[in-house]
Task: structure prediction
Amino acid sequence: MQEASDCRLKVIVTDGVFSMDGDIAPLPKIVELAKKYDAFTFVDECHATGIFGAHGRGTDEYFGLRGEIDVISSTLGKALGGGTGGYTAGPKEMIEVLRNKGRPYLFSNSICPSVAGASIEVFNMLNESTELQDKLRKNTAHFRKGMKAAGFNIMGADATPICPVLLGDAKLGAAMADELMNEHDIYVISFSFPVVAKGQARIRCQLSGAHSPEQIDHTINAFTQVGKKFGVI
Result:
């Protein structure tokens, strides 16, 4: 930011929640830095919308920074379940520029009415009840606690339902994921270089508010059996 101090426009861009590591951006420090250097803030909330904050509005709500972020971009898929489409929220002047000059906006079809209607209803549901979010938080804590107790290295913040199981070796990750699927009916994905850094291969697990405690226990037990078989724990 010091090097860019002479620039007319400055922007700090970050994910709210990082999808591969399960980390949460330190938004209070980022907002403080932006104010100090007169910069805009842009947060990609694709992995936070519907999950973080009292009403699922994302990491700005989670940190008590509603109205402090200049531009928020997110998806109608993932936690909101729409499967397609997304949105950008920000100052009226910026939105007008995007509507007239944003190529992905100008040259893409609009989302279908059924997705728009369903997405609006999901936002209404988030305002009316926190039942699914509360259950997701319990499921996340249940899984992370059980996996750590079993001896696995679980990456990311404890509040994040993205729970990467760090293994390091790409072949090991792929073999364990196949074993979990074929022998225990646990569908997980192994990620390795170049998606993540070399030596940082992991199996990324994602919790849902629809999971039952029994399903989570089954998953922890399956990981434990497979982890012992492959010498991970």
Notes: The mean pLDDT is 94. The domain at 11-128 is CATH 3.40.640.10 (Aspartate Aminotransferase; domain 2). Residues 33 and 39 are 8 Å apart (CA to CA).
